Amino acid sequence: MPLFSAFFDKVRSANPFSLSIRSKLVLVSLSLLIIPWVGYQYINEMEQYLQERQESQLLDRARIVASILSDQPDLFITKTNPGTDTDSKHLYVRPLAAPIQLDGYVDDWQNDKERIFLFSDQVDTAQTPQASSSLSFQFQIGSFKPFLYVLFQVSDNNTVFRSLSGARIDNGDHLQIAMQNADGEFVRYILSARKAGKLTSYQLPTANSKTTNVLEERRITGFIRKTQQGYNIEIKLPLLMLGGKLAFAIADIDDTKNRKINTIVRTTGSRHIQDIGTIVVPSPKIDDLLNRLHRAGSRIWVTDKSAKVIALNGSLKDSGKDIYEMEFKPNANGNLFSAIVRAIYRSVLQEPPKEFHDDLSTASELNTPEVEQALQGNPATRWRQTPDERVNILTATYPVTDSNTVVGSVAIEETSNSILILQNRAVEILINLSMLAMAVAALTVFIFATRLSIRVRQLRDSADSSIGSDGRVIGHVKPSKASDEIGDLSRSIANMLNRLAEYNRYLETMASKLSHELRTPITVVRSSLENLDSAMLDDEHKAYSQRAKEGVERLSNILTRMSEATRLEQTIQTEDSIDFDLAKVVSSCIDGYQIAHKNVTLTLNVHHTIQQPIIIHGVPDLIAQMLDKLIANAMDFAIPETPIIIQLQATKSIVQLHVINDGPLLPEKMKNNLFDSMVSLREKRGEQPHLGLGLYIVRLITEFHSGTVTATNKPDNSGVIFTVALPIAS
User: How far apart are the C-alpha atoms of 669 and 666, rounded to whole Å?
Assistant: First the structure.
């Protein structure tokens, strides 16, 4: 991460037009980021297609199930409704995973906690009890062959059991059961107890009963346990006792003196058989059929032609995997990196919710638009959202017919989790492939850019090293054999340097050629002028002749100076170097200058840090010629009557020769060009011609001796210091 941060900081701070080729190519490669973005947009657009595909497949499944059920129309004739419609309340009993232990505790019912029906003394419908209710209860019901189990959780501010003495069975809080038995008869039961524990069941006489006595019913067993809110009742009765109708009622007695019933809360009407709600316990035959057609993660409903549920199989919260579910699960041998990547995906992507509120968890009737359409003979599909808005549920319905008559419907449900899982998996694959493609592309671009920048840098370095600081061509560029633009550029630069080298050689030899070509005419002119001097000339013509001689002499001096640098360059390549004492050479030269220029004061200062002579390796005559040029330059610019100081400062490895004079300062723009050829700062022309070659000769001699020469202004800006640094011989 610090590497990327540094790179992007450089990009932000730098001029975008001054970035290297490698940086620009890396930036260009970032345009590949549009690939995962386009892919993500495509995946979002694909949701509509996946929904349509799921609708089509689910409707095909519903059609297949309906077709199978159409071959068995007897399954739609139940005990509750042998071919006729009824408006009474309906209850579909869902199977239990295990038998219930009758102890008054609710632990056995936790897996079915969504199958809860609520009733209160305010209304007799399945609504949440009001705060002012003195009696309310919720019950859960389920079947586990061969019994029906029911749990009642009663909220009662005063629990009253049967009196400990007396024969009455209804003078305490008790449970009433009204039902149609297996023979189609209307029967009623009361379950009560004198204390917490087992309940005793009694069958009450009815109009159709053969006896008027209250009989104990041992087939129905129960248990009552007091709780903080009231009490719990669990009962068990054989499924063989049930017909097609069943109702429950809780009777509440608060006054222990008169023991009269204060409130009765019923699930449905229970006084007459026609008032009792219908009940269906799925038959083993239809259960086995739906089990074979079941698919994990889906739920199959079967209704009669009144939309009452007669069969149900599966759950929307199944943990199993169906053909839609392709969720990635790392194997046991997966490495830490895979686990980290998966954790990142889980934190970024929306995971399918495992828990959500199922609004049809207790439904016994499907009065939904799609079921109504199916009962009218029209297949239909519909999406709905759960009340907690966590999951969308798709329902596909198909009519079940018998001889072109609709006898019921099949409804199959699935959640949108399968689509979300497919989308997440597609996003994961897209991200993985995009990251791989980006890494490969970035690595390829980086390698290509690095190779490209190396080639350009090598070409630049080769071109730079081919041109000296004085502008001369001192090397060559090896032309590349590559066929691309950089190869063409290297060949063009190599060709250009070759032409430039030829032109430089021409310029370097031009002075000697001019000198050679002009010396003959100059000699002719000089001899002619000498002949004229021997002739009898008047004074006026003698003056003209004298001026002509001076011009010829001046021209001869110019030619001599022009060829001096060329001759020096040729000479220093053939000179033999020796070890000599620099101080003696400089001192000898100064003595000679002092004799030749008596009006100029020359001062020599030698500073030693070592107690031995200043020995350098080179050519003494060239050092003397270099000192001649430096002294001549100093005398030309020095203020009259000011001394010229020559200093020698030696250390173990280097000696510095300083020539110091007071006078005009060096212009800033010329400091770096003083030692180039044909450069002169003289504003006035003297008697001798100056072509700007003196300091150029100084540089040539210094470089021949592996030294350097510089020119600076004095610290007090009173003059100029020329410094020649030479290595001391080891």
Answer: 9
> CA-to-CA distance for 505 and 662, rounded, in angstroms?
39
| Pair (564, 613) in one structural domain | no
Distance between start and end Cα atoms, the chain: 53
What tokens does 667 get? 């212009």
Look up residue 403 and give its amino acid.
S
pLDDT, block means (10 residues), the chain with 730 residues = 47 54 71 74 77 88 90 72 56 86 89 71 41 72 89 91 87 91 88 92 82 86 93 93 89 88 86 83 81 84 88 74 44 59 66 76 85 92 87 90 88 84 75 79 80 84 79 78 82 87 76 71 77 71 74 72 64 78 87 81 76 83 86 86 88 89 81 64 50 76 88 89 89
Q: Which residues pair with 473 in a beta bridge?
A: 467
CATH number of the domain that 275 lies in?
A: 2.60.40.1190
pLDDT tens digits for 471-516?
777 777 888 888 778 888 888 888 888 888 888 777 767 766 777 6
Distance separating alpha carbons of residues 321 and 297, to the nearest angstrom: 7
Longest dimension (CA), the chain: 188
Residue 360 lies in a domain: no
Domain edge (last residue) among 280, 312, 341:
280
* CA dihedral sign, ordered 497, 499, 502, 508: negative
pLDDT digits (tens, 9 = 90+) for 199-236: 999 998 887 777 778 888 999 999 999 999 999 999 99
Distance CA(305)–CA(409), nearest Å, equals 7
Chain centroid to CA 680: how far? 64
What six digits make up the tokens of 655?
């000696």
Q: Are 473 and 508 in contact (CB under 8 A)?
A: no
Q: Which residues contact 105 (CB under 8 A, 6 or more apart)?
A: 225, 232
Count of CB atoms within 10 A of residue 305's CB? 18
The runs of H, that is alpha helices, within 164-276 are: none
- Classify strands 298-304 and 392-402 as parallel, antiparallel or unpaired: unpaired
Q: Are residues 634 and 560 in the same domain?
A: no
Q: Which helix (H) or strand (E) holds 8?
A: helix 2-13
Mutual angle of helices 485-534 and 417-466, in 10-degree steps: 20
DSSP, collapsed to helix, strand or coil, labels residue 67 as: helix
Sign of CA dihedral 444, 445, 451, 455: positive
| Beta strands across the sheet bearing 405-415 | 309-314, 298-304, 405-415, 392-402, 380-385
Is 128:118 a contact under the CB 8 Å cutoff?
yes
Q: What predicted TM-score, i.e. pTM, was given to this entire model?
A: 0.55
Cα(307)–Cα(453) distance, integer angstroms: 77
Question: What does the mean pLDDT of the chain come to?
Answer: 79
Q: How far apart are CA 668 and CA 443, in angstroms?
A: 49
Instruction: Check if the beta carbon of residue 615 is closer than 8 Å to that of residue 657.
Output: no
* 578 burial level (CB within 10 Å; 0-12, 13-18, 19+): exposed
- Asked whether the bond before 399 is cis by omega within 30 degrees of 0, the reply is no
Say yes or no: 582 and 677 in one domain: yes
Contact 630, 593 (CB under 8 A): no
List phi, psi (to 5°) of 385: -105, 140
Domain count, the chain: 4
Final residue of a domain: which of 550, 569, 588? 569
Query: Residue 315: how many CB atoms within 10 A of its CB?
Result: 17
Q: Which two tokens stand for residue 669?
A: 């723009």
pLDDT in tens, 165-180: 888 888 899 999 999 8
Assign 712 to helix, strand or coil: strand
Euclidean distance between CA atoms 405 and 5, whole angstroms:
73
Conformation bin of residue 25: beta by default, left when phi > 0, alpha when psi is -120 to 50: alpha
Are residues 682 and 542 both part of a single domain?
no
In single-letter form, the type of residue at position 77 comes to I
**Is 616 in a helix, a strand, or coil?**
strand
- The SS3 assignment for 331 reads coil
